[in-house]
Amino acid sequence: MRRRTLLAGGVGVLVAAIAAPLLTRRIDDELRHILRVSFGDTIADDPEASLFITDVAAIWDDITPPAQRVTKPTTWMLSPLLVGPRAERENLTEVVTQTFMHSTNAIRAHEAGEPLVYLGMPDPYANPCANPLSAMWL
Asked: Residues 33, 79: contact at Cβ < 8 Å?
């Protein structure tokens, strides 16, 4: 009886250790990973990038149902294996990358070594000249 209890407890601990990273994955982790892959560690770890991640995560939390806030980042981790989450994650990657480029000077910061500047979420109607990809930024 004791061996079965010990074996069941060991299996339970092993399952919990494997499931913990999957069940605790947050959108912030996913966004930072996207920035790290697209722009490198220096830009992804910058405090200005953290402000961007906070704003995008807040928007994502507002538009995503509570049950999907946990399940979607978990299924995105399995995206190499599953077709649906792979397409969804590719779409998220594209949107986050383009939004980051339009709300920061990431390209100039990377190429010229300038400090990263986060301008806020882009709104072409409220502030049309705040596009760091335009000639007005120069």
From this structure: no
